[in-house]
Amino acid sequence: QITLKESGPVVVKPTETLTLTCAVSGFSLINGRVGVSWIRQPPGKALEWLAHIFSNDEKSYTTSLRSRLTISKDTSFRQVFLTLTNVDPLDTATYFCALPSRRLVGAYDFWGQGALVTVSS
Amino acid sequence: DIQMTQSPSTLSASVGDRVTITCRASQSVSVWLAWYQQKPGRAPKLLIYDASTLQSGVPSRFSGSGSGTDFTLTISSLQPEDSANYYCQKYNKYPGAFGQGTRVEVK
Description:
The complex is a heterodimer of chains A (about 120) and B (about 110). Chain A has about 120 residues and is an all-beta fold. In chain A, about 0% of the residues lie in helices and about 45% in strands. Chain B has no helices and 11 strands.
C-alpha cells in the first residue's frame, strides 16, 4: 500500500522560509521510473502545481515561483522536501505531495492528506 | 507554460441528469490529461487518466473524452455523492498545470 504523508510547520511568519517534508512508504522510488510532486491549494481556491523531482534528481518547477522554490530528496528517496523562501500571506495553503505510479510523467493516483500552512505574523 | 481552462466554473443539476465539464489546453497535450474529484477537506481523487481511461474503482457513470486541446468529463447520471469540485490536469510534460476547477452542485 502506497502512502504519502506531509509534515511541516502549521504557522510561518512573513519573510521566513517554509520547509515541508513528504514521507513516502510502500513504494520504491529508486527504480528510476517515478518521482514525487508538490501541489498546493489556497483556502477556497484551485489546485496549483509547484514542483516535481525524479529519482535521478532531475527537477521541474512552476515558472511563477521558480525563484523561491527548491525541491529535494534524501538519498533513500523515502523523503521529499519542498522549500519556499520569503513567504507571504498569499502562500497560505494546503500543501499536498502526490505520486504518479504508472509512468515517469503521469496522472497522480496517490496523494498525501495535505498539510495546512498559514503565513501570519 | 501551458494553461488549462475549465468551464463552467459552477453548475447545478438534478439527480439523474447528464452533466458535462469541459477543459481546454492552450497548446496540444495529446491525450495526457486527467480528471480529479475533490470533496471538502480531502485530497483530490483520480477519476480519469490518459483522457478517457477510467481509474480502477471509479463508477462507470464517469467518462472522459478528447485529445489535443479540448477535453470533456461527463457524468451520465448525476448522483448526490457527486457533489464536489472537479479539476483537469495536463501531464504531457512538466511543469504540470491544473484547470481552475468546476463546482458541481446536486439539487
